[in-house]
Write a structure and sequence with these properties.
Family: Belongs to the NADH dehydrogenase family.
Number of domains: 2
Strand content: 25-35%
Shape: globular
Helix content: 25-40%
InterPro entries: FAD/NAD-bd_sf, FAD/NAD-binding_dom, NADH-Q_oxidoreductase
CATH topology of the largest domain: FAD/NAD(P)-binding domain
Organism: Alkalicoccus daliensis
Number of strands: 23
Strand order of the largest sheet: 5-2-1-9-20-19
Cofactor: FAD
CATH class of the largest domain: Alpha Beta
Largest sheet: 6 strands, mixed
CATH superfamily of the largest domain: FAD/NAD(P)-binding domain
CATH architecture of the largest domain: 3-Layer(bba) Sandwich
Distance between the termini: 24 Å
GO molecular function, one term: NAD(P)H dehydrogenase (quinone) activity
Structural class: alpha/beta
């Protein structure tokens, strides 16, 4: 009986589970999922939970029920690749034949003093809940800063505007314009929407320090009622520890550079999926699922004694959709640039399909 251990019940880990359990030929295999939450969470929607426009029960999906799958609700404290073991906070130790690491990402604070301890986050459901509690207690007309003008920052700011029309919302971004990874048509559309909805954009920001309810931009303090940090991500701390211990090569984002079979070099039984794994694509739920699809195929071949293919198929992602509240959005689908209601409807449809075709 082979033992597959999956660390993390995010998009990549869940996709591997779904694909393996759907194959009735996958026998003599026990799958252990280690995930401290009792459910899979829709992380791409945590900005709405933080803003207060969605209740957390709408962002939960139950894990599949199958006699081959066992869910261990615990926290991982150490991964010992040389010993094929995983240590848990409860004191238990798991031994594996194959391991999938899908522990996701954390906020990256870029060494800014006070940023880690004194800002709010949307990187986990627990932290998004806490953010919502604080935001809802901000007094009428209070000032809320969002640091980071990428997709997460933009969606958080726009959803917060929908939740609290009274707030003074300020989005700080270090670039010349927000959403710098998108074409001009899209970031210009979003910028105009922000202006129309009274969200202030501070471009060319340089956050030098954060104190409780004080943000220092270029060294100048600004008093605020809440500060939300969305200025970049990095792999989970356990993955960063592995990287240091085994001198693993990483990309500029700190993601581990894996083999073409998604394994860690020198550890052919350890697969990396999601935000911890390097890719030509930006981190996303869609990318994690595509990697999970390939890992599931590779595991089935391995367990059947079949060779891996010489070349792996290229992962084709469908595009990116972003929301501006509940009625407007923007997106990039291949070469097509979408703005207005259509991309928002498309995003809602994608979310509905995912929620109703995942889990048990």
């Amino acid at each position: 009986m082979r033992h597959l251990v999956i660390l993390g019940g995010g998009y990549g880990g869940l996709r591997v589970i779904q694909r393996l359990l759907a194959d009735k030929e996958v026998r003599d295999v026990t799958i252990t999922l280690v995930e401290r939450e009792a459910y899979h969470s829709l992380k791409t929607e945590f900005y709405a939970l933080a803003a207060g426009t969605v209740a957390d029960q709408h962002l939960r999906i139950s894990f599949p029920e199958d006699e081959r799958l066992h869910h261990v609700c615990d926290t991982i404290t150490n991964i010992r690749l040389a010993d094929n073991t995983v240590e848990l906070k409860s004191g238990n130790t798991l031994t594996y034949d194959d391991l999938i690491i899908g522990l996701g990402c954390e906020d990256k604070h870029h060494g800014v003093p006070g940023a880690e301890e004194k800002t709010l986050s949307i990187q986990s459901m627990r932290r998004a809940r806490k953010t919502n509690q604080i935001i809802q207690n901000v007094p009428h007309g209070g000032k809320v800063a969002i640091v980071g003008g990428g997709l997460s920052g933009v969606e958080t700011a726009s959803e917060l505007r929908e939740s609290r029309e009274d707030l003074n919302i300020r989005l700080y971004d270090r670039g010349e314009n927000i959403l710098s990874m998108f074409p001009k048509k899209l970031y210009s559309y979003v910028t105009d929407w922000f202006i129309e909805n009274n969200i202030t954009i501070i471009n060319r920001a340089n956050i030098t320090e954060v104190d409780w309810k004080t943000l220092y931009n270029h060294g100048e303090p600004e008093e605020l009622d809440a500060i939300i940090w969305t200025a970049g991500v990095q792999p989970n701390k356990l993955v960063r520890k592995l990287t240091a211990e085994h001198s693993l090569e990483t990309d500029r984002m700190g993601r581990v550079i894996t083999t073409k079979y998604h394994t860690i070099p020198s550890f052919e039984n350890v697969y990396m999926v999601g935000d911890c794994s390097s890719s030509e694509h930006a981190p996303s739920a869609q990318l994690a699922e595509a990697q999970g699809d390939q890992i599931a195929v590779l595991l089935r071949k391995k367990w059947n004694g079949e060779p891996f293919p010489e070349t792996m198929p290229k992962m084709k992602l469908k595009g990116v959709l972003g929301s501006l509240g509940k009625k407007h959005g923007f997106g990039l689908m291949g070469e097509r640039q979408l703005t207005g209601r259509v991309p928002r409807v498309l995003k809602s449809g994608v979310l509905w399909m995912y929620k109703h075709h995942s889990g048990s």
